[in-house]
C-alpha cells in the first residue's frame, strides 16, 4: 500500500512547533534548580514526539539531533543524571536549533546542520563516549542474500497463558508459511481431562519444519513477542528434510501450508523455492523500480503542492470544538427562523401575519447577531500565544544585560483577534526590551536605591469595553524627563523655551528619531524604536501611551480593538453621502455654540469646549462634497479623539449606530488618505469609514509634543485665540 | 470491519496510523492519551489497541495494564509504539500485558505487516 506521508507534514510541523514552545516554557520554569518530575516528563515527551515524528516522516536531520536530546532527558528523568544549569542552557539552545531545522524543512530548504552538529557534539560529550545509534528512517525489507534454502526445525511450546497476551498462534503460523514451505505438527498430549479443561488456556504445542531461503532471524522475529511466554527452539537441520517422525508420539494432525500435506513436495522444495525466489526477486526488483519512479514523481508533485500549502498553513487557526458546536447550533436556529419566515411569506398577508413577520424578523436579527459574535470568536485566541515568547526573551536579554529580572504574566487568557495578535508581537517585544534595557536598573543600582535587586516586568492584559488593553509595567527608574527634554531640544523636536508638562515630555519618546540610550545597544535598537511602535499600533486602530514616575517605574499601555473585521460605527451624513466614524473614537456629539468659535491663523476654526480648544474640521471640505450645510449653527459637531488629541468633525446629521463589516479599500480599490476602509450598508450602498488619525494628518493639524495647536499646513504657527 | 483504537499524543502520528489503518480497511478510533483511550475502550469494544508509551495524563504502559484487567480485553491484542531507545520499555510493557510492540520510526507498510501478526 502506498501512502503519501507528506499529507501529515503540516500537522507534524504544527505540533512540533507547539512541542518546542512547551519545552521552552518548561525549561524556563526549571531554572531555579527545582526538578519536578512532571516538568522533566513534559520536556521529554515533547522531544520524544518530535523525534518519533521526524523519524517516521523521514526528517533524518531532526531525528538524529533530537535523539541525543532525548537520551539525555531520559537519563535525567530516570534519575541517572542530575540536571545542571549547563543542561538547561544547552537544551534551550537546542530548542532554537530544532526550530530552525524544522522551519527550513517546512520551507523545503536544506537545513543548516552546523549548529545542530555542534550542539550534538556537546550533548555527546555529556553523554560520554556512548555512541548514538543511527536512526534508520527506512528499514526497507531486504530480501535475504542467501539463496540457499535451509530447513529449520522449530519447536514451539507456549505456556498456558499465551492467549491472554493477545497473541494468536494461528497468525504466527501463517506468517511462518509465508517464509517458505511449512509443515505443521500439532501435539495435543498436554490436553487435560475435560473437567479440568480451561478454554482460556493453551494446552497445545507444535513442531514445524520450515524450508526457506530466509535467515533464522526472520523466523525468530515472528516469535519475538512470545519469547518469554513459550519455549521456542529453532534449529537448522540441513538442506533436506528427512522423513522421520519427530518424536515417539505420532503427530495427531499434519498439514503443509501450500500443497495438501505430502512430504514429497517438501523434499523437492529447496530446488523449487530457489527458482521461485529468483523469479520473485526479479519481480520484486521490477516492482521496487516502478515504486521508486512513482515516488520520484509523487515527490515532485508534492513539492509543488506543499509549497502552496505552506502559505495557507501560515494562515490557518485551530478552533476549539465547543466553538464549532455552538456555531452549528446557531446555524440550526437560523434555519428554523428562515423556515418560519418563508412560511409566513407563503400565506396571504393579514394583520396577524404581519405581527408574526415582525416577530420573525426580530428573531432573525437576534440569530444573526449571535452567529456573528460566535464567528468572531473563532478568530479569537488567548493572548498567551504572544506572552509565551517573553519568558525566554526576558531570560536571554537580562543575562546579556547582567540584570536580574522577574517576569510576571497576568491575564494570559484574555482573547483577541488572531490578526491583531500577529501584528502585536513585534511592538510588544520592542517595549519589553526597552523596559529591560532602559527601564530596569542594574542590581547594584537597585540595592543602592533601596530596591529589591530583582526587577519586575509585568505584562498585563484585560478587556475594557470593545478593546483589549495590554500593560507593560516595570519597576525601574522611570523615564528621565530632564534627559528626554534636553535630548529633544538637541534633536530640534522642541524649542528650549517650550514649557512642557512631564506627560508631554514623556510623549516625546514616541517622536520619530528619538532615542535616549547613551550608547546604542543591540538590545533596544538604534533609535528607530518608539515611533515605529506607535505607528504599528496605530495601524491597528490602537493607541500606546506611557505613564512614568521617576524612581518607581514606567507603564506602557497599549489599547487595541478586539478585532479588525468588525467595528461599531456611527453613521453620519455629509451632503448626500454617508460616512462612518468609529464609535470608539467618538467623545461626544454636540450642537455648536457659535459664540464660542474663534478663528485661528488662516481659516482654522476652533471651538472652546469647556477648557479645551477643539479644532473644527469640515468633512465636506476635506472630501470635496457640494451641497452640504455650511452654517455652523445648523450642523452638528462630532468630537473625536485620537492619540489624546481631540478634533471636531462637522457633519450634516447623525444617523444610526450600527456594527459594520470592514472591507479593505486597498484590496478592492487603493489606499485613500483619511479613510480606513469601506462597508456596505443595509440598502446596498457603499459607505466609507473615516480614519481619524489619518484625517488629522490629512488636514494638516499636527502636534509635535505639545497639546497646543500648531497649524503647519501653511508653514506657520498659530496660537489659539 | 475490525475496530482498532489508535492512541498517541502526537497528532501527526495519530493521523498517520489512523489513515494507514483506515486505508487497510479497519475501523479506526483515535485517542490522544491513555485516559481518553481507556474510557473509549470501556464504552465500545475494540479488536486491537495500538498505543504510544509516552503520553500525558496516562501513559501507554498504564493503559495496557488497565485494559488487560478488563474482562473484555483479556485476549485483545494490545500493541505499543516504542522507540529503539526505549528497549527496556518492552519488558515493562510485556509485564503490563502488552501483546507486542512496533518500533518507531516505522512506515505504513511496516505497521500493517506487524499488525498482521495479531489481527486479520
Structure commentary:
The complex is a heterodimer of chains A (721) and B (120). Chain A is built from 20 helices and 25 strands. Chain A is of the alpha+beta class and 721 residues long. Chain A folds into five domains: 1-129, Four Helix Bundle (Hemerythrin (Met), subunit A), CATH 1.20.120; 144-310, Alpha-Beta Plaits (2-Layer Sandwich); 321-378; 382-561, 2-Layer Sandwich (Heat Shock Protein 90); 566-717, OB fold (Dihydrolipoamide Acetyltransferase, E2P) (Beta Barrel). In chain A, helix 3 (60-77) runs parallel beside helix 5. The radius of gyration of chain A is 38 Å and the shape is flat. Chain B is an alpha/beta fold. Helix content of chain B is 42%, strand content 22%. Chain B has five helices and five strands, in the order E-H-E-H-E-H-E-H-E-H. In chain B, strand 3 (48-52), helix 3 (60-68) and strand 4 (78-83) form a beta-alpha-beta unit. In chain B, helix 1 (11-23) crosses helix 5 (108-115), helix 2 packs parallel to helix 3 (60-68) and helix 3 (60-68) packs parallel to helix 4 (87-96). The mean pLDDT of chain B is 86. Classes of the chains: A alpha+beta (721), B alpha/beta (120). The interface between A and B is large, with 46 and 46 residues. Chain B: Residues 3-119 form the Response regulatory domain.
Summarize the SSE layout with pairings.
The complex is a heterodimer of chains A (721) and B (120).
Chain A: H1 9-30, H2 37-56, H3 60-77, H4 85-106, H5 114-127, E1 150-158, H6 169-179, E2 180-187, E3 205-212, H7 216-222, E4 230-236, E5 253-256, H8 263-314, H9 321-346, H10 351-378, E6 380-382, H11 384-387, H12 390-401, E7 405-410, E8 415-417, H13 418-439, H14 443-448, E9 455-464, E10 467-474, H15 481-490, H16 502-507, H17 530-539, E11 543-549, E12 553-561, E13 566-574, E14 577-582, E15 586-591, E16 597-600, E17 604-609, E18 612-618, H18 619-622, E19 636-642, E20 645-651, E21 653-661, H19 665-668, E22 675-680, E23 686-690, H20 692-699, E24 701-702, E25 710-711
Parallel strand pairs in A: 7-9, 14-23, 18-20
Antiparallel strand pairs in A: 1-3, 1-4, 2-3, 2-5, 6-8, 9-10, 10-12, 11-12, 13-14, 13-21, 15-19, 16-17, 17-18, 19-20, 22-23, 24-25
Chain B: E1 3-7, H1 11-23, E2 27-31, H2 34-43, E3 48-52, H3 60-68, E4 78-83, H4 87-96, E5 100-104, H5 108-115
Parallel strand pairs in B: 1-2, 1-3, 3-4, 4-5
Helix pairs in contact in B: 1-5, 2-3, 3-4
Amino acid at each position: 500500500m502506498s501512502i503519501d506521508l507528506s499529507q501529515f507534514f503540516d500537522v507534524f510541523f504544527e505540533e512540533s512547533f507547539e512541542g518546542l514552545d512547551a519545552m521552552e516554557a518548561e525549561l524556563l520554569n526549571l531554572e531555579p534548580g527545582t526538578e519536578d518530575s512532571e516538568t522533566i516528563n513534559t520536556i521529554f515527551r515533547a522531544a520524544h514526539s518530535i523525534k518519533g515524528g521526524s523519524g517516521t516522516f523521514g526528517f533524518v536531520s531532526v531525528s538524529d539531533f533530537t535523539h541525543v536530546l532525548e537520551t539525555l532527558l531520559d537519563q535525567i528523568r530516570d534519575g541517572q543524571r542530575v540536571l545542571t544549569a549547563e543542561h538547561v542552557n544547552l537544551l534551550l539552545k537546542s530548542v532554537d536549533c530544532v526550530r530552525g531545522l524544522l522551519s527550513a524543512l517546512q520551507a523545503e530548504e536544506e537545513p543548516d546542520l552546523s549548529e545542530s552538529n555542534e550542539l550534538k557534539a556537546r550533548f555527546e560529550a555529556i553523554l560520554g563516549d556512548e555512541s548514538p545509534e543511527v536512526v534508520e528512517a527506512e528499514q526497507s525489507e531486504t530480501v535475504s542474500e542467501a539463496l540457499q534454502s535451509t530447513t529449520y526445525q522449530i519447536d514451539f511450546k507456549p505456556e498456558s497463558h499465551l492467549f491472554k497476551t493477545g497473541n494468536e498462534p494461528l497468525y504466527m503460523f501463517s506468517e511462518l508459511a509465508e517464509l517458505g514451505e511449512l509443515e505443521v505438527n500439532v501435539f495435543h498430549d498436554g490436553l487435560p481431562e475435560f473437567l479440568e479443561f480451561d478454554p482460556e488456556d493453551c494446552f497445545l504445542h507444535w513442531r514445524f519444519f520450515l524450508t526457506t531461503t530466509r535467515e533464522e532471524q526472520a523466523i525468530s522475529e515472528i516469535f519475538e513477542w512470545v519469547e518469554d511466554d513459550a519455549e521456542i527452539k529453532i534449529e537448522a537441520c540441513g538442506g533436506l528434510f528427512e522423513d522421520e517422525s519427530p518424536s515417539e508420539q505420532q503427530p495427531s494432525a499434519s498439514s503443509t501450508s501450500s500443497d495438501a500435506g505430502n512430504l514429497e513436495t517438501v523434499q523437492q522444495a529447496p530446488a523449487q523455492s530457489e527458482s521461485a525466489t529468483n523469479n520473485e526477486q526479479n519481480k520484486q526488483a521490477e516492482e521496487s523500480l516502478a515504486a521508486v519512479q512513482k515516488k520520484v514523481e509523487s515527490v515532485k508533485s508534492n513539492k509543488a503542492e506543499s509549497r502552496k500549502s505552506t502559505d495557507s498553513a501560515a494562515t490557518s487557526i485551530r478552533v476549539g470544538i465547543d466553538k464549532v458546536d455552538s456555531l452549528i447550533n446557531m446555524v440550526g436556529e437560523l434555519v428554523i427562523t428562515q423556515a418560519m419566515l418563508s412560511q409566513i411569506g407563503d400565506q396571504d398577508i393579514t394583520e396577524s401575519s404581519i405581527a408574526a413577520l415582525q416577530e420573525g424578523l426580530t428573531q432573525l436579527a437576534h440569530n444573526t447577531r449571535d452567529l456573528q459574535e460566535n464567528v468572531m470568536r473563532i478568530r479569537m485566541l488567548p493572548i498567551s500565544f504572544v506572552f509565551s515568547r517573553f519568558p525566554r526573551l526576558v531570560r536571554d536579554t537580562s543575562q546579556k544585560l547582567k540584570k536580574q529580572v522577574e517576569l510576571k504574566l497576568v491575564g494570559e487568557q484574555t482573547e483577541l483577534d488572531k490578526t491583531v495578535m500577529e501584528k502585536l508581537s513585534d511592538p510588544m517585544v520592542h517595549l519589553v526590551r526597552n523596559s529591560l534595557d532602559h527601564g530596569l536598573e542594574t542590581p547594584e543600582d537597585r540595592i543602592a536605591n533601596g530596591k529589591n535587586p530583582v526587577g519586575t516586568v509585568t505584562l498585563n492584559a484585560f478587556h475594557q469595553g470593545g478593546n483589549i488593553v495590554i500593560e507593560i509595567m516595570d519597576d525601574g527608574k522611570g523615564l528621565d524627563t530632564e534627559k528626554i527634554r534636553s535630548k529633544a531640544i538637541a534633536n530640534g523636536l522642541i524649542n528650549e523655551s517650550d514649557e512642557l508638562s512631564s506627560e508631554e515630555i514623556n510623549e516625546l519618546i514616541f517622536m520619530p528619531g528619538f532615542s535616549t540610550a547613551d550608547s546604542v545597544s543591540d538590545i533596544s535598537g538604534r533609535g528607530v524604536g518608539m515611533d515605529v511602535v506607535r505607528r504599528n499600533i496605530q495601524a491597528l486602530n490602537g493607541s500606546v501611551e506611557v505613564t512614568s514616575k521617576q524612581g518607581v517605574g514606567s507603564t506602557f499601555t497599549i489599547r487595541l480593538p478586539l478585532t479588525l473585521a468588525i467595528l461599531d460605527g456611527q453613521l453620519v451624513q455629509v451632503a448626500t453621502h454617508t460616512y462612518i466614524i468609529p464609535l470608539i473614537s467618538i467623545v461626544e456629539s454636540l450642537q455648536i455654540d457659535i459664540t464660542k468659535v474663534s478663528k485661528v491663523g488662516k481659516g482654522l476654526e476652533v471651538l472652546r469646549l469647556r477648557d479645551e480648544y477643539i479644532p473644527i474640521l469640515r468633512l465636506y471640505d476635506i472630501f470635496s462634497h457640494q451641497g452640504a450645510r455650511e452654517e455652523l449653527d445648523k450642523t452638528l459637531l462630532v468630537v473625536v479623539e485620537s492619540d489624546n488629541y481631540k478634533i471636531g468633525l462637522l457633519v450634516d446629521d447623525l444617523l444610526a449606530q450600527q456594527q459594520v463589516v470592514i472591507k479593505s479599500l486597498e484590496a478592492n480599490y487603493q489606499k485613500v488618505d483619511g479613510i480606513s476602509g469601506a462597508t456596505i450598508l443595509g440598502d446596498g450602498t457603499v459607505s466609507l469609514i473615516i480614519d481619524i488619525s489619518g484625517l488629522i494628518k490629512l488636514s494638516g493639524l499636527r502636534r509635535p509634543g505639545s497639546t497646543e495647536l500648531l497649524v503647519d499646513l501653511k508653514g506657520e504657527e498659530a496660537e489659539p485665540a | 470491519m475490525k475496530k482498532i483504537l489508535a492512541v498517541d499524543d502526537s497528532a501527526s502520528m495519530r493521523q498517520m496510523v489512523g489513515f494507514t489503518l483506515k486505508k487497510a480497511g479497519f475501523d479506526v478510533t483515535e485517542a490522544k492519551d491513555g485516559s481518553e483511550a481507556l474510557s473509549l475502550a470501556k464504552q465500545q469494544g475494540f479488536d486491537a489497541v495500538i498505543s504510544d508509551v509516552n503520553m500525558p495524563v496516562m501513559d501507554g504502559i498504564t493503559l495496557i495494564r488497565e485494559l488487560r484487567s478488563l474482562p473484555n480485553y483479556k485476549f485483545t491484542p494490545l500493541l505499543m509504539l516504542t522507540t529503539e531507545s526505549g528497549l527496556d520499555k518492552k519488558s515493562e510493557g510485556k509485564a503490563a500485558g502488552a501483546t507486542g510492540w512496533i518500533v518507531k520510526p516505522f512506515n505504513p507498510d511496516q505497521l500493517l505487516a506487524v499488525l498482521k501478526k495479531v489481527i486479520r
